[in-house]
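Renewal narrative, Specific Aim 1. Our central claim is that a sequence can be written position by position from structural information alone. The example that follows is taken directly from our test logs and has not been curated for this report. It begins with the structure tokens describing the chain, in the order in which they were read.
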């Protein structure tokens, strides 16, 4: 579904983009069924942060690819020139991620310039529309590596 919708998401008004993201977040647990994966797609994680301004819990579904021991995501906002709000929420408090029904605390690290092209290859293989996102925007889309907090 997102492979199709992602091609036009940059045309949506902000309120509609947030509506779709919120709807997707609410049905994310459905994603862990065969039917859910067919509708929503594989490799969707649910990122939980606290809003930088609102101080409210924010849940954001994101496409990810597992590379070695970390989960790689792009702050693409469908190729918009605006960086998504969730990116600014990363440094407010602890970050939690749910993947395949398992929730865990995570740390994050921005991908450095040296590794960017290799990391983009992983994401492009999963979701080729990322190439269009990079062409569509003037900004340098941040890439983020999430890792499980080891207790």
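The sequence written for that structure reads:
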């Amino acid at each position: 579904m997102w492979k199709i919708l992602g091609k036009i998401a940059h045309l949506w008004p902000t309120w509609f983009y947030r509506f779709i993201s919120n709807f997707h977040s609410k049905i994310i647990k459905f994603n862990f069924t065969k039917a859910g994966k067919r509708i929503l797609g594989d490799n969707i994680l649910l990122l939980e942060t606290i809003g930088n301004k609102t101080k409210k819990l924010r849940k954001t579904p994101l496409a990810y690819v597992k590379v070695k021991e970390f989960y790689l995501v792009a702050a693409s906002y469908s190729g918009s020139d605006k960086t998504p709000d969730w990116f600014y929420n990363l440094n407010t408090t602890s970050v939690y991620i749910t993947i395949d029904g398992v929730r865990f605390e995570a740390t994050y690290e921005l991908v450095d310039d040296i590794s960017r092209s290799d990391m983009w290859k992983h994401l492009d293989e999963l979701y080729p529309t990322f190439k269009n996102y990079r062409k569509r925007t003037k900004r340098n889309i941040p890439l983020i590596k999430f890792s499980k907090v080891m207790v």
